[in-house]
Amino acid sequence: MVRELVDSGHEVLGMARSASGATALIEAGARVHRGDLEDLDSLRRGVAEADGVIHLAYFHGISNPKVATRLRILLGGNPRRIPARFAAAGADTDRRAIEIFGSALAASGGPLVVAFPTMTLASEHLVTEQEAPDPQSPGAVRIPSEEATLALASSGVRSSVVRIPPTVHGDGDKAMVPRLIAAARKAEFAAYVGDGTNRWSAVHRDNAAGLFRLALENGKAGARYHAVGEEGVPMRRIAEVIGRRLNLPTKSLTNPESARHFGWLGPFVARDNHVSSELTRKQLGWNPAGPALLSDIDRAEYFTSD
């Protein structure tokens, strides 16, 4: 994202939680603002220096929250509820950050572009940008973040949401596909649920960055955009690539077996996520060029253990 913005002539101030994050930002061409999502004063200071905000940060692991938050998640009740408490803490922190950004940008009407998961959308039909999130989806806890972002348009903020697929793939990917690979290594088979025809939408990281820039520069207040390069890749095809690369068999799992095999990721692996970006392409002139998911993950880089 930073390189995309810098190459397009923008000056970037990036928030970093760690020294390694700060180094990565500097190497990509950004100035560094140290802070984290739970430090609201830090967020206010950072946005005060900005003409617009692209909000990509989130709690993606238990090490992301501050120690006090982590303890509340881990020790705050029934251990079986730890994933739910973690998800709620991440969603609440995300919403508060969006409100901070919005209040700071209201005076200027500057742009705010917020990342939001397509896994909050309905399943088993092709979902367009016009559809609201599904309260029954596995990502429903994050719905207030989209609602808060779009509501800021009435305050004069040029706020928009870019919905991102479950896999944003490419060099440096540390998210969904690597977790599928790790689960296959541990179990010694690559898995899918049922007949594996449920689909994941997908986009290459470079294409996603390009869309966020376009939304920052030209996005409409209150708009939803879809960073979807491929509408839906069957999960069985993904498992087959992983199995072949690891020299492991592929195996169909039931939903209960999937929960045990994938842990918190189980409901997402079983979900059909068939998503269109036709309106986004027309409205912003976005033309994702790939590479496609299956060819991209069928490389040694995805299967090299540190």
- Give the C-level CATH assignment: Alpha Beta
Q: How many domain units?
A: 1
Shape: globular
How is the CATH topology named? Rossmann fold
Can you walk through the features of this model?
- By secondary structure, the chain is α/β, with parallel strands linked by helices.
- It is built from 13 helices and eleven strands.
- The strands form four sheets. A four-stranded parallel beta sheet has the order 3-4-5-9, sandwiched between helices. Strands 6-8-10 form a three-stranded mixed beta sheet. A two-stranded parallel sheet has the order 1-2.
In short:
The chain has 306 residues and is of the alpha/beta class. It has helices at residues 2-7, 19-28, 40-48, 67-75, 82-105, 143-151, 176-187, 205-218, 235-246, 255-262, 266-269, 278-284, 293-297; strands at 13-16, 31-34, 53-55, 111-117, 158-164, 167-169, 190-193, 199-204, 223-226, 230-234, 250-253.
List the helices and strands and how they pair.
Blueprint: H1 2-7, E1 13-16, H2 19-28, E2 31-34, H3 40-48, E3 53-55, H4 67-75, H5 82-105, E4 111-117, H6 143-151, E5 158-164, E6 167-169, H7 176-187, E7 190-193, E8 199-204, H8 205-218, E9 223-226, E10 230-234, H9 235-246, E11 250-253, H10 255-262, H11 266-269, H12 278-284, H13 293-297
Parallel strand pairs: 1-2, 3-4, 4-5, 5-9, 6-8, 7-11
Antiparallel strand pairs: 8-10
Helix pairs in contact: 3-5, 4-5, 5-6, 7-9
